[in-house]
Design brief:
The protein has about 350 residues and is mostly helical. The protein is built from 13 helices and 4 strands.
Length: about 350
């Protein structure tokens, strides 16, 4: 059997009564005895993979949705190349290379190619599927053989708002109206806490029952990857939440609700609804159109770093598992170091 990069697997008989053992011809290391060849096409494994992500890996709904979305491109490629019946152990290095070429040369209906970072997302999803095969003892290519370009993330620049733009956004809602007051509370909460949109949507009224006499608030939440962390509401943000909650006479569980729901439907605002709300105020405030809830999260982290907070603390604030994720904000620290160098080590006091 030929594997990735031309590696071969040979089958040899053992001297014991344990049956046949598979060996990697290059490393001469035996493969696990319980590895099996699946006769189910790769495409039909995907629903089970997504269930595995939910039940055994405990991944967030959004992550599962992303995997499902990005694997659709792989399914399209399999069908286009008439390989929809391809079995896991039949996937070769040549197939991976052909798929990478497909992503590299892909263009949408407007002729726009996929960015390198986006191509990586498709490959990461496929790599996760191969990891699933390994976890389930299904013979396939090793996931670590799908290497990602080291400089692919370089083109992904963090987009954030400065404080002047944040101020314009926060002041955009008309807080004299019920909906405007709710929206002001949403925006203030996002910037004060750095919450992800899914974390914001999941907040409930009962978490804010005893805030009347508090100036600020520390709140424990369960974030991405089911990891607990503490988020902090400033006095300013908490004051707007208090004003908003004073208008709530309903018994809805959700903290942020919409006011046009059917009586038999839940009133909780969805992530999509909040994105639309934000987009409305972005236009109204005249700030960059790229602004999303995650842009506010970036702005939150950027502001803290500008104030001198170190990356390790930012990692805790944002709930990042690894400091590597937080290092995307080094654009701030790099500029700060440059400014410090200019101010204190320019050599301006030395004679020419």
């Amino acid at each position: 059997m030929t594997g990735l990069l031309g590696l071969h697997i040979m089958i040899v008989e053992t001297s014991h009564n344990s049956g046949k053992v598979s060996y990697n011809k290059r490393t001469l290391k035996p493969l696990p005895l319980n590895m099996k060849k699946s006769n189910t096409p790769i495409i039909k494994h995907i629903p089970d993979f997504l269930d595995y992500c939910e039940v055994e890996k405990g991944l967030a709904d959004r992550t599962q949705e992303n995997y499902q979305h990005y694997l659709q491109k792989f399914i399209i490629w399999l069908k286009k190349t008439k390989k929809e019946a391809l079995l896991p152990y039949e996937l070769t290095a040549e197939d991976i290379w052909a798929y990478r070429l497909f992503l590299s040369r892909y263009a949408d209906e407007k002729g726009r190619p996929l960015k390198k970072v986006t191509q990586n997302y498709y490959l990461i999803a496929l790599r996760a599927l191969l990891s699933y095969f390994t976890a389930k003892d299904i013979v396939s290519l090793p996931s670590d053989k799908i290497a990602l370009p080291k400089d692919a993330r370089a083109e992904k620049m963090v987009k954030f708002l400065n404080l002047e733009q944040i101020e314009k956004l926060l002041l955009a809602p008309n807080a004299k109206t019920t909906i405007g007051l709710r929206d002001r509370a949403i925006l203030e909460t996002l910037f004060s806490t750095g919450l992800r949109i899914a974390e914001l949507v999941a907040l409930n009224q009962e978490q804010f029952i005893n805030i009347k006499d508090k100036k600020d608030l520390e709140l424990g939440i369960i974030g991405k990857g089911s990891r607990p962390r503490t988020v902090y509401f400033s006095e300013r943000a908490l004051s707007w939440l208090k004003k908003y909650l004073e208008t709530r006479k309903d018994k809805e569980k959700a903290l942020f609700i919409h006011y046009k729901a059917r009586r038999d439907a839940e009133n909780r605002l969805t992530a999509r609804s909040i994105e639309r709300i934000l987009k409305h105020y972005v236009v109204l405030a005249g700030i960059p159109i790229f602004t999303t809830p995650h842009t506010i999260r970036h702005s939150y982290a950027t502001d803290l770093l500008t104030q001198g907070v170190d990356l390790r603390a930012i990692q805790e604030f944002l709930g990042h598992r690894s400091i590597t994720s937080t290092q995307i904000y080094t654009h701030v620290t790099n500029k700060r170091l440059r400014d410090i160098h200019r101010q204190f080590h320019s050599g301006k006091n030395l004679k020419e």
